[in-house]
Design brief:
This protein is of the alpha/beta class and 283 residues long. 35% of the residues are buried. The protein contains 8 helices and 10 strands. α3 runs parallel beside α5 and α4 packs across α5.
Length: 283
Amino acid sequence: MSKPFIASLTNETWQDRATPLLSVQNLQKQYKTRQGYLTAFDGIDLQVHSGEVVCLLGASGCGKSSLLATIAGLQTADRGEIYLHGIPVRKSHPQVGVVFQDPCLLPWLTVAQNIAFGLRLKQMRSLTKPELRSRIAVAIAQVGLQGFERSYPHQLSGGMAQRVALARTLARRPQLLLLDEPFSALDAITRLDMQALLLQIITQQQTTVLMVTHDIDEALLLGDRVVLMARHPGRIYRTWDITQPKPRFEQAHTLSETRFTILEALSTVMDTSANLPHAVIGD
């Protein structure tokens, strides 16, 4: 097995817009179970360009979250390659940030301290105290939590906790933001607020996003592309380009036809998979 390799990215590499920021080629992941090996996903080919928001949509068991975890370097692929700006990546990378459904905040740390924790990970370059304070302050302002720097997680609402989780990742200034259903546990009003916040941050930071969601409406509101995955094993079934300008909160009627087409394709995928064994892995 070849050794993990992460090369330094030159200015020319960053500026090469022809090269996708993220490229996934023929990716496969298997898990060992009592019944043998289960293929979570197979043959995944995906490209995400700088400034693009791509939403991964699919039913439970199609390998969406497993794919995201593999791209994040939280687990290794069994086959295939992952490239960041054309450079092979086989472990977690400082330019890739992840936000999960659970905020995963440390309860004994304040908001500011939880954000600082993400800046002290071993793959991050060491920051001076002024740099650290500046990163924390900017991230807190980005998510609108000024005044809550010294609050603890138990003093926050669900939406506020998720804002802290987002700020913790944004403070690292990642080139690629991976989101694993970060708003699915929130109520409808808070979720809409967080979606608007995310769109604002994406616009301001020109952030590139790969987002896992179960929600067709969320994918249509946020995505430049919607990628539908089939299951058993997980694979890319179909892709839609969403060209309407953002924000789209008041344009739902213009997306109704696309929504119906995606829903119809999702129904087809689920019917096709209905007679196959149910996946025992996470989605």
